[in-house]
Amino acid sequence: MKNISMLFFALIMVSCSNKTINKNEKSKEVITNIDSEILFKTKWKLIELRGNKMENTKFTLEFFEENQFSAFAGCNNLGGNYKVENTFKITFSKVISTRMACEDMKTEQEFSKVLEMTDNFILDGKILSLNKGKMTLLARFELIK
Question: Which residues constitute the domain of residue 6?
Fold first, then answer.
């Protein structure tokens, strides 16, 4: 009888903890869906790249609902696909670029590398941060449209 009581108690505890996890997962999904919607049909201006503030930059990033993005890297245009999954996970793929020779190719190349390295994002009001892992901020953008 004691074993049956312990088993019953354990089942109740597991059942309750699963409900709590499911509620949290649902609330995260809602937050993700609401936050990721701001990505679509919006334009972001680069304000920081790999820890360096970008003053008067023309670098932009724009997302489209068809899982495509475009970017302007000061001289060249970039484009490709992106995918948003789970809670704030984002990846960029098939990144292509025009190939005009420009004065500051180093920054443009770094910008392209950052997009390919990104695996998650954080939306904080009108600021979009692209990150690698939990602790590495790669780029920060400000909403402009």
Answer: 1-35
